[in-house]
Amino acid sequence: METSIKGLHHITAIAGDAQRNYDFYTRALGLRLVKKTVNFDDPETYHFYYGDEQGTPGTILTFFPWGTKVPRGRRGAGQVTEIAYSVPEGSLDFWQKRFEKLHVTQSPIAEKFGESYLTVLDPDGLKLELTVAKTPDLRAPWETSEVTADYATRGFHAITITTANSQATAKILTELFGYQLHEQEQNRYRFVTAAVPNAAIVDLLEIPGEKSGYTAGGSVHHVAFRVSNEEILMAFRKKIIEAGHQITEKIDRNYFYSLYFREPGGVLFELATDNPGFATDETVAELGMGLKLPAQYEPFRSELEHVLPQLH
């Protein structure tokens, strides 16, 4: 049985306008809309899933687009503050020119842990990085007419958690999840799991006295870590309880099964299974084309279709 988490499963963030979010991630960044559904707890809000062709764990960034009136969040302690995508070597010049043409806010190319990266902000201010990993990323890309395989993202490379004190979060990563401290640059600690070759990195950025972040538009709601199936999910639940943490019961999210707990640093962690995957209510070729509703909301489909913004 797995004793280590298999890296990142998905990351969920909050956005403002649904159309603007859809345009940026599918057209500017070139991701695939893998699933268009609704928030389980707020069915008048979309839940978008963007990723590769099949919605492979480790590629999925999801959003709750709460509309144009959502306040802007603030990055700070107790949050996932950076999301890094893996891109091919030699592609950063393409992305710089593309983002300049599309008037996307970006910073000059920089380097950390010996890897070059380009920082950009999405339309709501969510901080993304495109990183050329030290080890070539062999995952198959999702291509569009404007973002071909020579440049396309391969999925997540890393996340950064900002924290006022990294020790408690580091203990979760190492003692419960099977990560190991791999490198350190000043106040940035890089933890890596050997269980998977990609989407395997969590950076802890320790800033003593850092003000807590505010979760709203342009900020991360939670990060999900990956396990293979429900048996392993529940084994991790037992392990987390035995370590003295509170955690939810298993929740069926239609495309995976989940547990949630808040790590001591303040970030909401989710554990999510690979099964059953996104091709359960539509084929791989049709992913993201139709509005898919949880069974409890299917009787209200016509009302929800009237309320939810139409994408074009």
UniProtKB/TrEMBL annotation:
One GO MF term attached to the UniProt entry: dioxygenase activity
Listed transmembrane segments: none
PROSITE patterns: VOC
VOC domain mapped to chain residues: 7-133, 155-274
Keyword field: Dioxygenase, Oxidoreductase
Domain of life assignment: Bacteria
SUPFAM superfamilies reported for this sequence: Glyoxalase/Bleomycin resistance protein/Dihydroxybiphenyl dioxygenase
Protein name: Ring-cleaving dioxygenase
Organism field: Siphonobacter curvatus
